[in-house]
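Supplementary Methods S3. Input chains for the assembly prediction are listed below.
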Amino acid sequence: GAVVSQHPSRVICKSGTSVKIECRSLDFQATTMFWYRQFPKKSLMLMATSNEGSKATYEQGVEKDKFLINHASLTLSTLTVTSAHPEDSSFYICSAGTGPLNTEAFFGQGTRLTVV
Amino acid sequence: AQKITQTQPGMFVQEKEAVTLDCTYDTSDPSYGLFWYKQPSSGEMIFLIYQGSYDQQNATEGRYSLNFQKARKSANLVISASQLGDSAMYFCAMRLNQAGTALIFGKGTTLSVSS
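Predicted structure tokens for the full assembly:
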């Protein structure tokens, strides 16, 4: 099946610094990728929809200047957490699919971000 | 708006027994897909099973089956012959069959399998 690779799997950073998370589709082209955030033992909350070659669409309540998304190619989307604070500590996971009728959505391995 | 409801925060089952995880959904769109994912403590999302809104038969994948009752808008997951390795969090999700739409998830159910 299709593979989505997310990197890094874990990152610890200091408050005030920025962290970039990469999401790559390895064997298919993804015109759309999705970024989710998950708190411990909670559900996955959609943060934004990343579209190749255009601006991302953010969900209500998600700060676009805080969570910068770039989808520069059909195989790569990046999420940058800018000026990170401890409350940004969370599990971030990306997803990609090859079309609306695809019967499976493919997920990256997730990134556990800890801001100290 | 679409919504997924999982009312069981936690479920307990013994090895080799069957267990049903509940999921109801709400949408006014006639074309959609329903998914179940397993998330172990590592965090990866493992796809289990898919049911399309127009599928006439319930989906099955090995020990997993989806009890799809369209009129009731329910899509319960049945795991037969539970194994210790089934202990994880399980999410029900829905996606409209429209380009660029994301999966919307329920709150999840934590399944604990004991020996």
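The mean pLDDT of chain A is 91. Chain A touches chain B at residues 31-32, 34, 38, 41-46, 49, 51, 91, 93, 95, 99-101, 103-107, 109-110, 112 (CB under 8 Å).
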